[in-house]
Amino acid sequence: MAKEVKVLGKWPSPFVMRARIALHLKSVDYEFIEESMQPKSELLLKSNPVHKKIPVLLHHEKPICESLIIVQYVDEAFSTGSSILPSNPYDRAIQRFWAAYLDDKWFPAFQGVSRAPNEEAKAKGLEQVREGLSLLEDAFDKCSNGKPFFGGDKIGYLDIAFGSYLGWVRVSEKMNNIELISKDKTPKLHAWAERFSANDAVKDYMPETEKLMGFAKMLMAKYQAAAST
Question: Which domain holds residue 175?
């Protein structure tokens, strides 16, 4: 019997990881459909004709696109499990603000480090990434209220938004021989990252660093080849 919930995605994607963690938190049984992306499947193109990107959540064959929208939908559509978004409107707004900051500002700067044309540009990019982490250290202090996660006692919306990038952060640290989330400069984020990665709702979806690094090297080779043509 076909499952009523399906996720179209690919294992290295932090955005796909968001959807899978949300479904786990809400105890929703679903089918994961691995996309090759080369070429993109007919189902993906039909389900997300605007952006043609993963992830896509299919609920009763109806598609929902964009990772943070999917997380919010899962929270609202399924009453099982604990709530992902805070019940307080102000707290919800704050977590949405930081999630938007991550996707619109911080992650593009993070990606720019690996694509920097020279050491000067790379250093500038790393500075932006570290400045962002300092801001997020402060945001964690305010959002968590002394509890283990941005969402309080349990993983919530902002934990998912930021935590999905941790696998790629570790790859960047290893490939560039740097430390981004450190005990010295961002101690609260460092402790949070360890708690988040070890959580039952996360650990099965967090990619292994070595495997993800191999994928990253392949992506970089393609990017460099395209840039030289």
Answer: 89-209
